[in-house]
Amino acid sequence: MDRTAAITVVGAGLIGSTTAFALHRAGYAVTVLDAGLLGAAWQAGAGMLSPDGEGLSRGPLANMARLSLSLWPQFARDLEQSSGLSVHYRAGVERLQKDGLRLCTPAEAQVHPPSVVRAALHGLEVRRESFCPSSLPLSPHSSLTILATGAWSAAFGLPVFPVQGQALLLSAEYNRPALFGWRGAGAKGYTLCRPDGVYVGATVRRSASTAPDDHARRWLGGVACRLLPADVAQAPVSQTLLGLRPCTADDLPIIGPHPTLPGVLVATGHGRHGALLAPYTAREVLRLVNQRCDTDCNKCR
Length: 301
Ligand SMILES: Cc1cc2nc3c(=O)[nH]c(=O)nc-3n(C[C@H](O)[C@H](O)[C@H](O)COP(=O)(O)OP(=O)(O)OC[C@H]3O[C@@H](n4cnc5c(N)ncnc54)[C@H](O)[C@@H]3O)c2cc1C
Fold this sequence. Notes:
Blueprint: E1 6-10, H1 14-25, E2 29-34, E3 48-49, H2 60-83, E4 90-96, E5 102-110, H3 113-121, E6 125-128, E7 144-147, E8 161-170, E9 178-180, E10 190-194, E11 197-201, H4 214-227, H5 230-233, E12 237-247, E13 254-257, E14 264-268, H6 274-300
Parallel strand pairs: 1-2, 1-7, 2-6, 4-9, 7-14
Antiparallel strand pairs: 3-5, 4-5, 8-11, 8-12, 9-10, 10-11, 13-14
Helix pairs in contact: 1-3, 1-6, 2-3, 2-6
This protein binds flavin-adenine dinucleotide.
């Protein structure tokens, strides 16, 4: 395989689009396929880049998260410079303390997931197409397939399951840093000011349903009342968002060769951290593709 060989990225969510972006930038010819499935997590994701807020303090996931967080400022600049589109990177995340004070972590941040996907796919060949597991392994003209199929990855034999999340977008003028509720008071949940409104998130339910429910809406209303000024919390709901997080049993993403299919790499299982882990994942996949390219070139010499 050389750099002009075609790479097919299946899935144009947060992981597929940013991985395709990194490969394209490194000189690979990339085609992206996406089925436009209802429940795609990137359409509902908040865009918090907050290992602290997520309680990631130790272990391999925390290490990945910290590394990825440190890659985000430059990654955001690269996305914006190459596309001319903003990804709405904003530094600073606050956490509500037991005593009601807010603790700010300046190194943490937020992005706007739909804008990240749009910027990453800018200028790439993207086809609206559902990719069938039975078409793997692909014919010789496609040298490498990368599966970034999110919560639908089990169809490709991967141990990933969907965890539904719901959130609300409020139509209000408000401009504060992202805020995590204090977990001890049952005030879990968070709010972010985004270009499309004030985001209130997010429920967690092991389900593949794509139908929003009233119980979630009531819970989110409670989060809004606890974390936002009254006039903002009572602003009209402009959108109810629902997405299926691609989760794994050990909470770790799956990044590497497919366990049984030759010529297939996998980047999935990012659970509730796909926005946070996107630059790390894109870098890892690029490293694996470069490695494969070098090995194949050495064989030809
Ligand atoms: C409510 C909510 C809030 C969240 N908040 C945050 C947050 O604050 N911070 C954070 O880091 N993460 C957050 N996440 C998690 C984050 O959104 C996900 O981890 C991330 O979107 C996963 O990216 P992905 O590309 O693997 O999957 P997705 O974004 O779901 O994209 C998968 C894509 O693959 C396509 N696809 C699937 N199968 C096929 C096929 N066979 N053929 C073609 N296309 C296919 C789908 O159409 C879809 O577009 C949140 C998620 C939810 C639901």
